[in-house]
Design a protein that fits this description.
The chain has 262 residues and is of the alpha/beta class. The chain has ten helices and six strands. It has a six-stranded parallel sheet, with helices on both faces. α2 packs across α3 and α3 packs parallel to α5. The chain is globular.
């Protein structure tokens, strides 16, 4: 199909999806598992597949723009799991961390960005420069009062988070004079949630994973208990606005069925 015709079809289809979403039930919090950067780079013919991380990092800005368009005020982006950071090569991890520092954090801090930055993961194990850039982004955007919140999830494992939350809860109980038996007797779901990395933030309503993989990879295990899951074959750098709107349409359809009891 000629480029002009393909472009026209895309615009018409995007307009149709936009109309379908006009009165749809939309998620308040979307979590993104941005998978497939290296495979996309190979598909595009790049000699170094790690360059896909740059395109993937830059694409976060597009995704956040789509979320503001649909007034989705909470977004979590899964940058790297603990497993990935320990299993990938040193050069690739260094490149990924540079992309996180140079692209994601800087663009979130630029003048006019509505996003307030939150962090989740075992940040102390990150390189000093990456940790400093992330914390600077959090501090720089702390006064943003637009209601738009983005959580950068890096060096993260859902099991680790729950272990850390329980440990933090026990330490807090000990400081108040409670013994282990009393703590165990009184512990609630809310108590654990209050000690998660994401405390104070709503749980995701919709989790989108790109690249065709249909697994959670330890992402937000506690928080995703009631979330809708959407898996997309497209690699993350190639994830388009129409792919995003399809995910929203699917979420709306599923939510309506669930609420109607169908």
């Amino acid at each position: 199909m000629p480029t002009f015709a393909r472009s026209t079809m895309y615009r018409l289809y995007a307009a149709l999806l936009r109309r379908q979403l006009k009165h749809a039930v939309l998620p308040g919090h979307i979590a993104l598992v941005m998978d497939g950067n290296r495979r996309w780079a190979r598909q595009m013919g790049f000699d170094n597949p790690s360059i896909g991380h740059r395109y993937g990092a830059e694409h976060v800005e597009d995704a956040l723009a789509w979320c503001t368009e649909f007034d989705i005020r909470h977004v979590s982006v899964f940058v790297a799991s603990t497993d990935n950071l320990h299993k990938r090569g040193t050069d690739e991890i260094a490149h990924l961390m540079r992309m996180l520092e140079e692209v994601v954090t800087q663009r979130l801090c630029k003048v006019g960005s509505p996003w307030r930055v939150h962090l989740a993961g075992r940040l102390d194990s990150l390189p000093d420069s990456t940790r400093a850039a992330l914390k600077n982004a959090r501090e720089t955007t702390a006064e943003h009062d637009t209601g738009f919140n983005v959580t950068i999830v890096v060096d993260y494992d859902g099991h680790n988070e729950i272990v850390d939350a329980v440990r933090s809860l026990l330490e807090s109980s000990h400081r108040t004079g409670r013994g282990p038996a009393e703590t165990a007797d009184r512990i609630t779901e809310t108590d654990i949630a209050d000690h998660l990395y994401t405390r104070g933030l709503p749980d995701p309503d919709l989790i989108i994973r790109t690249s065709g993989e249909q697994r959670m990879s330890g992402f937000l295990l506690w928080q995703s208990a009631r979330a809708e899951l959407y898996f997309c074959d497209t690699y993350w750098p190639g994830f388009r606005r129409i792919d995003f709107m399809r995910a929203l349409r699917t979420f709306s359809q599923r939510t309506k069925r669930r609420l109607s009891g169908a």
